[in-house]
## 1
Amino acid sequence: MSPSLTPSELSRYSRHIMLPEMGVEGQQALKAASVLIVGAGGLGSPLCLYLAAAGIGTLGIIDNDTVDETNLQRQILYNMDDIGLSKVDCATSRLRKLNPYINIQPYHTALSSQNALDIIQPYDLVIDGTDNFPTRYLVNDACVLLNKPNVYGSIFRFEGQATVFNYSKGPCYRCLYPAPPPPGLVPSCAEGGVLGILPAIIASIQATEAIKIITGIGTTLTGRLLIYEALDMKFDELTIVRDQHCCLCGEQPTIKGLTNYQQFCGIADTPIDVTYGEIASQELKTLIDTNTAPTIIDVREPYEREICHIEGSQHIPMQQISNHLQEFDPNQELLFYCKLGGRSAKVCQLFTDNGYQRVTNLKGGIMAWANEIDTTLTQY
């Protein structure tokens, strides 16, 4: 039996109730529902706000991160006073003020193979607001194993995607992406950037899909991948067919439980042996102070270098670096850096593959340098 609505709730949700497709019954269904939001970042912020405002009875939020100033360009759930604090704590406090009639369940942890099934099991559906492939596969697999709808969204630069997985006999994430891309092939938003408004658009679509699933109204995105291009203000749609041979949701599934998703996505639990060196910021500072530093090369984009850079470094963007290989002596000491160390690691590998013997990567990139050595640099 659906929970009744108090007079205050009838007033609060009156604009919903006026909709013939929704009515009191639809609002009662929202009150009875439980939704888990995985990730309280760019997508999670508007998801939390809209679903709390809509009257979802129980809203679970899982994230183990803290608020950083660079989040505030798009993560509208937080403000300057929240910097350094737990995202889940800040979200819980604000949402309880927004709607005291709902229950907020915070989880101060990262979703993992060890806890995913226990955390997801009590919820009616899951909304994926994550930004990495291991967690996306984890959320997908757990939802299929528990038979929970998975409302998916992703954002990058000016493009966003949304769909619904594992609902109404539709496909799962593995039907669309049977295997993850090679590690490092797809840059993160931290390296590639994202338009601040984009997460709100995609999250609003995800929230809409969740409400439609709960209330049983409309046609969902199951079997359809919605693609949004902000620069062209254009929506496209691709059909996703459930793969009868899918290893998870197919006719004869081979996946019976959760696995090591870092390993599955090619991200090792322990450092992989590489053919180039790695140096910490303090070590580089010592070399610079003693005039024994190698040639330092910044491989970021020009706009990134305008924000901050290490004094005395050269600048060759990663996309152009292969054209400059012959400009260096194979025995020359070279140190490469980017924002976080991922792109520069690829450049290091390129040089060592081409016979360069004295190649080093700055561990943690210029953000580590800004945190540990030159705190006057602008972080981004």
## 2
Amino acid sequence: MTAIDLNTRIVRYGDLMPCRTAFIDAHTPGSDQKENFTIMGGGVSESADQHVHITDTPGFNIGAAGQPPKCRNSLHTHRTAEVFFVLSGRWRFFWGVNGKDGEVVLEEGDLINIPTGIFRGFENIGTDYGMIMAVLGGDDAGGGVVWAPQVIEEAQAHGLVLAENGRLYDSKKGEHPPTGVGPMPTLNAEELAQFPKVSSQEFVPNFVARYWDMMAMADGQPAPVIAADGMLKDRPGFRLELLRDGSIPTDEYQTEQHEILMVMRGHWRVKWDGGETSLAPGDTCAIPPSQKVSLTPAMSGEASLFRVINTDDAAGPTDNFHDLPAVLG
């Protein structure tokens, strides 16, 4: 196989192009300053303005959300996996139809694997602009987002209408759904009652991994974070590991799967036949199957990255908490 210039497969943190109109709450006070980034794959953006950095997908999507302090992402759910790790800032994640079933606070490096079939939201509770990086299951990310009814109703009051075709229309700009395309229907009380209630005591041990626990496990080997044998036992269509200095040999290697590197801390040197480069925090590198590379920290000090590898599992979680309500189909 001819080596690919991996410089064409790297999305630098400083080159990320945000979209502020990605979702239905783009005009809702408290949520109107958030930025959405689609790094690899189409993601779940509802806006034609969303820029996609790498269009192909390996069975999952890579994205990010950036928010200033006190900015909130509204309650929604997905049909496939949604995994976040905190690149910067301090974040509160909350869940339930009304967002009151439970909550957890994540610090930098912490990771959360949010169950499907549960409404979830998150907000930056730090003092500076923060960024969370995301992995979404499925090539099409499960067909989009299902919003809590109150989110849709509040958005309409601020001029945004989500149509049944999954696209947003801004009535303040004179935009309206095409003839014959109605608004996205909202879930009724009976449908909402099918969504499970999960307490913080049930949620946190099964779906949250703390950075320093992962770092300790990665001493001498990759730490399996999300996998059948992982800290968070799940098979959502990808395997997610944490790597640190010494987790893997410094020799050249290759895999038969897509390998996505997402740097958390420090700088990492990636070499391949004909080239090499350095990856910094927030950078994403998509290594195709059979590409020979070597991977080492570029300097002394703390260095860590998350590695995501596609698997043959279905693009949806298998844990008991992940059972989809019938309403989601």
## 3
Amino acid sequence: MNFILSNNLFAENGILERIHTIIKEDGYSFPLCMVDEGFSSSEYWNTIKKNLEKEFKEFNIIEVSGKEEPSYDSLRTYLDESKNFKVDVILGIGGGSCMDVAKAVGGLLNNEGDPIEYRGFDKVVNGGIPVYLSPTTAGTGSEASFNASLVDKDSNKKLGINGINMFAKKSFLDGKTTVSCPRMPSVGASVDAIVHSMEGYICNNSNLFSDMYAETSLKLMINSILDLNSELPSLEHRLNLLKGAYLAGVVQMNSGSGVAAAISYPLSVYYKVPHGIGGGMFVLGIARFNEEKGFKKYENLYRLIEEPFAEDFLSHMEILFSKLDVPNNLSTFGIRVSEKEHICEVMKTQQPAFDQNPYKFSAEKDFPNFIGNYLS
């Protein structure tokens, strides 16, 4: 068994108000902040930025778009812009896309060639610029993993830059960063983390350590996620969501994903379905598929729920997702039954990920019937 973990984590509400001091004490003088364009309009970012500007004579900012999945095309643009500055540390503050871009830029600043040449694992041979990350949504767990997911627009495939030199040097979880994010993007991100932990928990590559991380992640997420429906957010719940998402990122990195996450990837590329919501739409359906085959492991998770809505784990999750307005039909995204043939065709590329499911799930035989439940 091989379990990968390589990151210094700091979890404390308000810690980013001291990030300028932390960077200075770590010996850096030329920080480049890559900040999500949505977070850049928040009051909290304004406080963080003012502190950084006072501390450093040369402090630069690049705003990263979160409107679509990051691609190799957009990475080239960000990388070229970064080369205009003197940089000895990168601070990435944003959602998963922003953090992935920050990791990729940090990894490639000391490596020559086109970014597309670094697709795959451990292609980034030379250590890059140190990267510090702070998530503004509790979702992908990018701050914990060695993956930077990017879309190759020529092939319409998500092929990331991954490997040991892609870890962030430090990660900072601060519930105050999540408050300014709109509700549904926050829901999508947190549901994505739940999908990572649920699928990592049951996939064929799961192990003792990934199961421990998955259970703790789910306990934190499930019992705090309804705070996203509250008009007055609880910073304690928000920090719990960030902790759970961090652990979920570790689970996914070590166990892999499952069917639901795999289905969401082509849907995000071809139909712009938000990845987190996409996985959330299907994860409970896949769980029911496995349950009907005789799979019992989900039963272990019921004890994690503090205030259950039902008498079993999956029923509780169905009610929870309903309260969070997770869609149950692709028509929400303008996808109709007329698209079924195309969806089934592109989904054949996901069979290796489908094979991680504890019971055989065939892209050719099982998927067409399954996806029909989500089309009208």
